[in-house]
Write a structure and sequence with these properties.
This protein is mainly beta. Helices cover 7% and strands 57% of the residues.
């Protein structure tokens, strides 16, 4: 808490400096964001802690993946079972096991989260296709419903620009890391299009940690005066190996080894996405728009170490229309009314061996959800605005075993949630925003939380499992002075009831005792045009149980402190050299609810990169070189405590690695 207080005092000093410089501030370009309200609005009107990463920042900062770019932001933390970003699990605001279930990930406003207990495939979204990334911290359950408890990440992809562009990229590095990409895009008076393809592969830092990804897709859009529409299609094939965990002796001896007995664990999947968007605005103050989407995930997983051999087929349909209406009330009023409809179906076949001749289990689970919501933004005074929202969502999860070695399942459960939020924002100066808010939140169980379908310890329908619910109180401040300083900070209290996790003794999915998530997040960027860029952030997160036998204990897998910093020096003739660092404090391993086992140690990672964009070469050519984990630190991004074996198992992160790349656009 002392560190948090010091952080806030320093931030207050920066605020005073910025206010002094306010009289000399120059007008900056208006930045328009989408995620915080599901409609386009100026960033200065958003009552939330929002971070934006642009395509230019992705390129200049030396990030080699979407995950590495996101984890450089305040409040975002990633863990991985394999040591690479293929299936990395994102966490925000103090959630441990299955933390990704409390963070909603969108691509162009369309849901990417899976209905089962698995993180998204981050390699579905190649870096070269990203226009910008918007990260909204805090509860967004009213706007987005399920999963949006701790925050929303919206990845906005590029649209074709005027004329015709061709972009090529390539990268090679340690452990045979290689990446090749191509993109074609263009637009005319009414139409725009984009086509891309990317291949990414690595042998991996650890034995049995390789992955290969092949992605391609395209989009096309029509823009008329009152009507616009777009169609996007994408396909990704992802193969990755699972090296397993290491106990402390194995980790200290050689963190690159695979867990003994896990020499053949692997997974391969096909990911298909199809989305249709539309927008109709017959009048200046009226907009009707929405999206219709289809997702297919066909995943084959072989775990001889378990043993488990499964074929999983996930299909998802979504339809999300909404109406935006601007009303002449006070200084301005915007009303949004929307409906979100989702249908998810999971089919799982389990086999006793890799030959897949006989099945031991055939299960079909259906999750049907419909949510209706309304939000109203009112500008009370030129310096004061308020917003309020309400949502009701109804979900039914039904499961049926077509073939099983145990008792057959044919059950369903209906869940419902009513949530609301209220926020106010005060802008005493054009570059200063102060906001506060209160809102309730929820998360429905994953389909394979509601029903156990993997035979561990047995197949059953958890009829008593309830949705997670909670509330958040948040305060925040942001300022931007003379385009050389941007500073933002927020503090929050998030109380949760009935969080869902696996009981380490019975291995059943259960609702946990109430938890409290108390934290503060702050980030700052200093820029000296054409000379120097410095950025840094700090996150304090205290997540504890509020009742029950573990009262006062910290929630496992949640670091108390996170910090990152980066500095870049701009050189003549288009050069740029930079360094970065990331610190994650120690955490308790998953399953260690009593906090009495060995911790997952803290770690500090340092990186460096060099970029050169020769101004004298035609086109947009960029050459880059980077080193990650420069000090070759041995660390684990997560750990799991085994009650039966009485020890903690660690999942090592990657050691030092380099990469060099080139890209050009004409």
């Amino acid at each position: 808490m002392k560190k948090t207080t010091l952080c806030m005092l320093v931030s207050a000093c920066l605020l005073a400096v910025a206010l002094t410089a306010q009289s000399q501030q120059q007008e900056s370009d208006i930045e328009v964001l989408i995620t915080a309200s599901r409609v386009e609005e100026p960033a200065a009107e958003i009552p939330a802690h929002v971070s934006v990463i642009t395509a230019g920042q992705l390129s200049s900062s030396g990030h080699s993946s979407l995950v590495s770019a996101l984890e450089s932001l305040a409040g975002l933390h990633f863990r991985s079972f394999s040591g690479n970003e293929a299936q990395a699990q994102v966490s925000m605001r103090g959630f441990g096991e299955n933390s990704f279930g409390r963070v909603l990930v969108l691509v162009d406003g369309r849901r990417l989260n899976r209905p089962d207990m698995a993180s998204i495939n981050w390699l579905e979204i190649p870096l070269q296709t990203i226009e910008r990334i918007e990260v909204v911290r805090g509860n967004s359950s009213v706007l987005y419903g399920d999963n949006a408890v701790a925050g929303v990440i919206n990845i906005i992809t590029k649209k074709g620009q005027a004329g015709f562009d061709v972009a090529l990229s390539g990268r090679y590095g340690s452990y045979n890391q290689n990446q090749e990409g191509i993109e074609l895009s263009g637009s005319g008076e009414l139409l725009h299009f984009s086509i891309m393809g990317e291949h990414t592969a690595t042998d991996g830092y650890r034995d049995r940690s390789a992955f290969r990804s092949l992605a391609f897709g395209g989009s096309a859009g029509l823009e008329l005066d009152t009507l616009s529409s777009g169609l996007s299609l994408s396909y990704n094939r992802l193969f990755y190996e699972l090296p397993g965990a290491l106990d402390k002796t194995e980790f200290d001896f050689d963190p690159t080894q695979a867990q003994p007995g896990h020499g053949a664990d692997e997974s391969i999947g096909d990911y298909v996405n199809a989305d249709l968007s539309f927008a109709f605005s017959p009048y200046e103050r009226l907009l009707f728009d929405g999206n219709a989407g289809y997702r297919l995930r066909s995943i084959r997983t072989d775990l001889p170490s378990f043993p488990s051999f499964t074929d999983l087929n996930l299909q998802s349909l979504a339809f999300t229309p909404k109406l935006e209406l601007e009303l002449p009330l006070l200084n301005g009023n915007r009303l949004i009314i929307g409906v979100d409809g989702f249908l998810d179906r999971a089919n799982l076949d389990s086999y006793p061996d890799i030959d897949r001749v006989d099945t031991t289990l055939e299960t079909q689970i259906t999750k049907t959800a419909i949510g209706v919501y309304a939000t109203d933004d009112l500008e009370i005074l030129p310096l004061l605005s308020a917003s309020a929202g309400l949502r009701y969502e109804l979900t039914q999860i039904s499961a049926k075993t077509l073939k099983t070695s145990g008792a057959p399942i044919d059950e369903s459960k209906l869940h419902q949630a009513m949530v609301y939020d209220l926020s106010v924002m005060f802008t005493p100066l054009s570059a200063v925003r102060i906001w506060g808010g209160y809102g309730t939140s929820f998360r429905f169980p994953f389909v394979d939380e509601q029903v156990s379908i993997y035979g561990f310890p047995f197949d059953t329908f958890y009829a008593d499992l309830e949705p997670e619910t909670g509330y958040t109180v948040e305060l925040g401040l942001e300022l931007e002075a003379a385009r050389w300083l941007r500073w933002a900070a927020s503090t929050y209290l998030l109380d949760m009831h009935d969080e869902i996790a696996v009981d380490p003794l019975t291995f059943a999915n259960v609702n946990l005792d109430a938890t409290r998530h108390l934290g503060a997040e702050t980030e700052i960027t200093l820029t000296v045009p054409k000379q120097l860029e410095i950025s840094g952030n700090y996150t304090y997160t205290l997540a504890t149980f509020r009742e029950g036998s573990h009262e006062g204990k910290r929630v496992p897998l949640v670091p108390l402190h996170q910090a990152s910093a980066a500095a870049a020096l701009l050189l003549p003739l288009g050069g740029r050299v930079g360094v970065s660092g990331q610190y994650i404090s120690d955490t308790f391993a998953a399953g260690d609810l009593d906090n009495n086992q060995a911790v997952v140690p803290a770690y500090l990672l340092v990186g460096a990169h060099l970029r050169f964009r020769p101004e004298f070469v035609p086109g947009d050519l960029e050459l880059s070189f980077g080193v990650e984990n420069l000090l070759d630190v041995r660390y684990a991004s997560m750990g799991v405590y085994s009650e039966f074996q009485g020890k903690v198992f660690y999942y090592p992160g990657a050691g030092r690695r380099w990469s060099a790349g080139a890209s050009c656009r004409y």
